[in-house]
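Researcher: Here's my situation. A collaborator sent me these components and asked whether they could plausibly form a single complex. I don't have experimental data yet, so a predicted model of the whole assembly would be a useful starting point for our discussion.
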Amino acid sequence: MAIPALYRSTVGKKAVMAVTGGILVLFLIAHMAGNLKVFLGASDFNHYAEWLRTVGEPLLPHRWLLSAMEVMLAASVILHMWSAVSLAWTARQARPVKYAAKKKSHASGYAVHTMRYGGVIIVLFLIWHLLDLTAGAVNPEGADATPFAKVVADFEPSRWYITTFYVSAVILVGLHLRHGIRSAFQTLGLASSRSYAAYDRLATTLSLLLVAGFLAVPIAVTFGWVR
Ligand code: HEM
């Protein structure tokens, strides 16, 4: 099947969701692991952030790795959301009359809400997060501060509302991942009824590890373990 025809099909869109979701999960694993360098101190963390910008120089241009990653992430987020909206639209057209409330399964209703509204909140968080820790525009330390100074300033105890926002967003990302990874295994045909429980455990464990790793930084700064 030609690529455009495949993309127009439901299974094609689900595959696009699974592949772009996979790219985003890989980014999150790398990002979470990089964040943990905060525990090695300011100089290690800032050195790592500097390395992300200078790796491969002078053969490759300054910031090539981050720029390539940004293009890939933006394309993945757009394709992921576009496929989700398009699949929801197709499902609605296939069944214009709503299910009677009593027939609606709690599990699917909960998952649809978590994925749909959760996804939108994650994108709003992402916009704030980029303005905060990448551009520095809304960070108390401003754009010219080091990445370590920006992170520490963000999660000062007095800024508990920003910390709460980050913690909530990270938990939402975890819930989104848990359901997303399970769905991807099903789409890719990996989860037969026999192996479903194993894939379910894998999705839950991976999501919990990511959430714990991401939460370690704001918690450590709030309690003064990182300063
Ligand atoms: C408490 C958790 C988090 C902390 C402390 C954190 C910290 C940071 C920092 C310091 C940067 C700037 C890196 C640099 O300029 O070198 C950054 C960039 C970024 N973060 Fe996070 N982050 C967190 C959670 C997340 C989550 C959950 C997502 C995705 C949903 C995310 C997505 C991004 C993206 C896309 C960038 C930009 C990468 C680029 O410049 O190309 N972060 N983060």
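Model: Some features of this prediction you could bring to your collaborator: Helices lie at 3-8, 10-35, 42-54, 64-94, 106-134, 147-154, 160-187, 196-222. The longest helix spans residues 64-94.
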